[in-house]
Design goal:
The protein is mainly α. The chain contains twelve helices and two strands. Strands 1-2 form a two-stranded antiparallel sheet.
């Protein structure tokens, strides 16, 4: 038979069969009457290759497996085949776990859009907070700064560098607190950023955090890793402006002191 016929019989493409020839996986048949003449052994070989490929084995492993009669080989060769099979099984299990995670994320995205919320890697409470506060920004300068802060947090969440407890700070922020945040946020963006203003703003941020955690402050403090906060600030320093770095350093310094106090250390 010709290559097109073997391709039809085995459900693979002619191009794939030629690739198998090129890498030595399928022997090249003799030429008869001006064309390559395939026989049943080629059909069986290509069929087995497809079967193993669909089982998740890579081409690089298939040749050694096909070249061994697993039912009639020494134990060492059978062990080699088992190593390849188990390695491929492990890879597939990893893919299945990854696909399961993707499925869960997609389900969350669908639900997010159905509820009219923004698509974002941020937790829903954090995303909603920035939707609201950005919409209430009194001017373009403040609005742009809030957008940049949100973009930084998206990066931090994607990298897994935000403490889980941080989400509590964005839930159910009342009108008075939001107005205060906008006012202080705007003040920090204008004019000269003196050391006094930096310290004042940082203390205000940490006090709002204390208030946000409320009665859970002590429990939350026990879960926060100081090194995790320092890594978050390091990321902020890389992505932020000089003003951002100065504010960030002061906030982290006061926050670490507050956490140590809450932990009793």
């Amino acid at each position: 038979m010709r290559v097109k016929e073997i391709a039809d019989l085995t459900g693979v493409t002619v191009r794939a069969i030629r690739h198998y020839h090129a890498i030595g996986l399928v022997p090249v048949p003799e030429v008869r009457y001006g064309w390559r003449d395939y026989d049943l052994s080629h059909v069986a070989r290509v069929g087995r290759i497809r079967w193993l490929l669909e089982s998740g084995l890579p081409l690089a492993k298939i040749r050694s497996i096909l070249d061994e009669d697993v039912a009639d080989t020494p134990d060492d060769k059978r062990a080699s085949v088992l190593v390849d099979l188990r390695a491929s099984l492990e890879v597939l299990q990893g893919r299945i776990e990854g696909l399961s995670e993707q499925l869960e994320r997609l389900a969350v995205l669908v639900a997010t859009v159905e509820q009219g919320e923004s698509l974002s890697p941020l937790p829903p409470a954090v995303s909603t907070y920035y939707d609201v506060i950005t919409g209430r920004a009194p001017d373009s300068v403040t609005r742009l700064a809030l957008v940049r802060e949100r973009e930084f947090l998206e990066l931090a969440y994607l990298r897994g560098e935000v403490p889980a407890a941080a989400e509590l700070l964005f839930a159910e922020v009342d009108e008075q607190t939001m107005a205060s945040i906008l006012e202080q946020f705007g003040d920090s963006l204008r004019g000269e950023l003196t050391d006094e203003l930096v310290e004042e703003a940082a203390i205000g941020v940490v006090e709002r955090m204390r208030s946000g955690f409320g009665g859970q402050l002590v429990d939350v403090a026990q879960t926060i890793d100081a090194n995790e906060l320092r890594r978050l600030y390091a990321l902020f320093s890389v992505t932020g402006s000089d003003r951002d770095r100065r504010m960030g350093e002061a906030v982290v310094r006061h926050l670490l002191a507050a956490i140590e106090a809450a932990q009793g250390t």
